[in-house]
Structures are given as C-alpha cells and as structure tokens.
Design a protein that fits this description.
Elements (H helix, E strand, L loop, with lengths): L15 E3 L9 E5 L4 E7 L4 E5 L2 E4 L3 E2 L4 E8 L7 E7 L8 E9 L14 E5 L5 E2 L4 E8 L6 E6 L2 E3 L1 E5 L5 E8 L9 E7 L7 E7 L2 E2 L11
Parallel strand pairs: 2-9, 11-19
Antiparallel strand pairs: 1-3, 3-7, 4-5, 4-8, 6-7, 8-9, 10-12, 12-16, 13-14, 13-17, 15-16, 17-18
Length: about 220
C-alpha cells in the first residue's frame, strides 16, 4: 500500500527574551552596573543563537518538551555600553529565521551620557622618599576613569585627613591635594589616597606610601665662664 505523507513545516513566529528575574525584555535591557553578570534567556524554538553585531557568540541551547532555551551570560564592562545583542531562531532550513535585537544599557542617572563606571586607576604623584619632622608636607593624588567622577579621600593610617580636589571638564580625571605636618609617631605609618565612585560604594581603588620621617635635633651646649 502506497501512502502519501504531507509534512507541514511550522516556522518560528515569535521570540521571547527574559532577564534573570523572568521579566520580558522588549528593546533595551538594564540599566546595569559595570562588573555585574548579564543573564538573558531567549526562547521558545530550537536552533537558537546569540549574536553581537555580525559575530556569533553563543549557539548552545537546551530543549525540553515544549520549547528551547538559550541562556546568555556576559560580565559587563564599560565597552558593553549600548551594545546590540541579537537572538536568532529557526526550526528548519526551508523557512526564514526569526530574530530579535535588544540594546544593553549601563546604569544611568539622568541621560545616556552618564553611566556608572568604577575608577580605573589612582596614583599618588611625586612620592616623597623621606619626610621632614615638624614640616608641612604636600601631596597630590590623581584618579581616572570613573563615571560619574570619583571622590578622593586621604588617610594617615586610619585617621582621615582634610583635603581638597578638582575635576577636569570632562569629569574623567579627579586631582586631590592634602597638606599635613608629620610627627615622629607617623614614622612607618601608611599615607593612603582612596578613590570612590559614590554610586558604587562597595568598590574603591587606593594607593599608599609608607612614611619615613627624618628628625633633626639642634643641640646647644652652654659652658660656664
């Protein structure tokens, strides 16, 4: 007996992208802080892949009884600000694939130009080799890369010092100044400059020096006539 079997191919009709909390992502995901893990899931059909621009970055997926999932994880850096991610799916070679594109936003305050980025570097400039006892010493510390601009704090061991700071017009560089008079007790202590983005309070960068205090005593001798 000869039988004719008609095979019906049902193309992919719609894709769904969700975040770690299961919330639907339509066109933009975020905002996220730099350094956090971005987790996105694309479903429901087999042969699901993720693309960044024209580059394939993930084609692994899990298939259960009803649908397929492809979960993408990226640890975000400042280079991922406003990047475009595309989820693409198909279930055969005869019909067109379906794709969906979203944009990733890093954490912003007021507009797209201001987003949260950790300080990239901090450095005490022109480090003194030796400090004079009972003489006012001046120090300069510079930090770069924070968005918004970083605040800088100085510490003599655990004691915070009074300081001032300036910020470049583009907000990229913060320069801090501190003056204080070392004592004999400061010998061997650390003078530390700490840069903090107040929007990311659990992260800081610091640079420090170990103070070596020079002490000069003038001795005068009195002789009896």
């Amino acid at each position: 007996m000869k039988q004719n079997i008609a095979l019906q191919i049902v193309p992919v009709s719609k894709l769904f992208i969700t975040d770690d909390s299961g919330n639907a992502v339509e066109t933009m995901a975020g905002p996220y802080n730099e350094g956090t893990a971005l987790n996105l899931t694309c479903k429901p059909q087999p042969q699901i892949s993720w693309w960044r621009d024209a580059r394939l970055i993930d084609e692994t997926y899990f298939v259960n009884k009803t649908h397929a999932n492809n979960k993408l994880t990226i640890f975000l850096t400042r280079n991922d600000f406003m990047m475009s991610l595309k989820c693409q799916a198909s279930n055969n070679n005869l019909t067109s694939s379906v794709q969906r594109t979203i944009v990733i936003d890093l954490n912003s305050k007021l507009n797209r130009e201001i987003y949260l980025v950790k300080p990239r570097e901090v450095k005490i400039m022109a480090k003194h080799q030796k400090l004079k006892w009972n003489k006012i010493e001046e120090f300069v510390c510079e930090t770069r890369g924070s968005k918004p601009s970083a605040d800088v704090f100085w510490f003599n061991d655990r004691q915070q010092l009074v300081s001032s700071q300036t910020t470049s017009e583009d907000g990229f560089v913060t320069t801090s100044f501190v003056s204080f008079m070392p004592s004999i007790e400061d010998n061997g202590k650390n003078l530390t400059c700490v840069a903090i983005n107040n929007q990311i309070p659990d992260f800081n960068l610091n640079d420090s020096i170990t103070m070596e205090i020079e002490c000069e005593f003038a001795l005068s001798f009195l002789s009896n006539p």
